[in-house]
Structures are given as structure tokens and as C-alpha cells.
């Protein structure tokens, strides 16, 4: 009978290639180096470890953040070179140099975000086809010097407005798109962009973060749970942001229009907990507390 048809058997879960032991507390995050055979892992007690992926042994270990804060997120990428960034619940993001003997014993820079939440930071993701081509925060995607970031009010134009209350850049300063870090802001429904090299906050999304925001749509969506910064091929080199919220929705931002998102969708019935973009920055996936994983496409010309 048709009802007696056998269901396709599930494939058994694959065995791990290796099990790396050494952490004394729960492992919060892990990431690979973009070029070297290294794996980085951070734990709830503040320890940051470097593993050799060939020998499966610890190369180096440091206490990156206080034990009460712990390491919550780790980020590495081609744009950072031999530097890795750790994020703790102490409101700090720290940069560590990858040296021959392991990680530097002291951070090479510290970004005081003063944000205390469960949203992991995000570096700017560049399409795979664009690697080797310089992309800029202010729109240049050629190998030449990036365009300048204007400091005057340009809310309605293609210029980038710095958020009120942040330290303004001098006229003529420029930013590389791969030198930007996105993170949920001090106001937990907002997103902040930081210049890694200068440890400065450069923008808040939505932009009027110091004004009366009680009626803004982000307030109604609850906490910002996940962020992903990226540069779509169609954006002319401008940084875009995806931010997911407690109500299950996801917003798409463009730094040229920081006052309001390009679009808003709701993929989950409960909190959207994670988001990731594919290698070409043309689509991604979102995971939610409703036990669902949503796959979506990104069409810059339809927003």
C-alpha cells in the first residue's frame, strides 16, 4: 500500500575528524584563520586559545577577557591580516597579533564599545570575486584611494552621516570597508559601526540614535540579536548591514541611508538568533528560536 512506503533512511551523523580538549569552561565561539592552519576558540572564563589544525594541539593560550565577562565572539579575516579580534561581555573588543610563538600577550588595540549583550560582532564580508580589490566604506571599489567620508549633514544624499555623540572625523579622512566592525549598540535595538584602526564609533543605525526613538520601528522589534556586515556587488562598494531582532524580523541597511532600513522581513515566529551571508553576498541563512533555519536571497535592485 502507498501508506506503507518506506521512508528514506537518515544518514548517520559523521564522526568528528578531531576533538580538541583543553578549555576549562564552555566554548562560546570558534573561527579559522583565513590563510594559516590555525583555529581560534574562546571560552566563558575569558580564555582565548589557538590550535594547530594539522597536529590538533594548542599553539598558544591567553586570558583575553575577565572571567566574569568571558570571550563571547571571535573574528578573523583577510582584511585584518595576522590579527584576530575577541569580544567579551565586558564591553570591550580587543585585537591580538598572531605571532610566530602564538598570540601577543597584550592587545594591540582595545575598542571600548560599552555594549553588554548577547549579539556577536561582525566584520565586513566581501564577495569572493572581489577579494584582492579594495572596497571602501564610502563607495570606492577600485584599487585607488577610497572616497572621503563627509562630516557635514547629508542625510538625504549618498554621503555618510556620522551619528550624533560620536567623535567626528577630520575632513579628508578615509576608511577601508574591511576595517569596519558592526555590533549591537548601547541602545540594544540599534546597530553601531566602528572604525577598527582608530577605535572610533562612526555610525549608528538608525542614525538618530540620540533623538527620541520611541516611535522608530527598531524599538518595536526588541533586542538586536545578530548582525552581519557585507558589501553587495551592486552597492558600488558601500557597506550594507543585516540585523536580526527579538521579534523574528530582519532589517537590511545601507550606510547611505542610515535613517531607515532598505527593507524589513520576518522569517521567524520567535527570536532570530543568528544570520550568515554566502560567499558571493547574494543570499544567506537565518536561524531562529522557532527551531527553523530560513534561506533567503539578496537582490539589491529590488529594495
UniProtKB/TrEMBL annotation:
InterPro entries xref list: WD40/YVTN_repeat-like_dom_sf, WD40_repeat_CS, WD40_repeat_dom_sf, WD40_rpt
Region of interest: Disordered: 134-162
SUPFAM superfamilies: WD40 repeat-like (SSF50978)
Domain of life assignment: Eukaryota
Bias-annotated ranges (Polar residues): 134-145
Pfam families (alphabetical): WD40
SMART domains hit by this protein: WD40
PANTHER family in UniProt: PTHR19854:SF22, TRANSDUCIN BETA-LIKE 3
Protein name: Predicted protein
Organism: Hordeum vulgare subsp. vulgare (Domesticated barley)
Lineage: Eukaryota, Viridiplantae, Streptophyta, Embryophyta, Tracheophyta
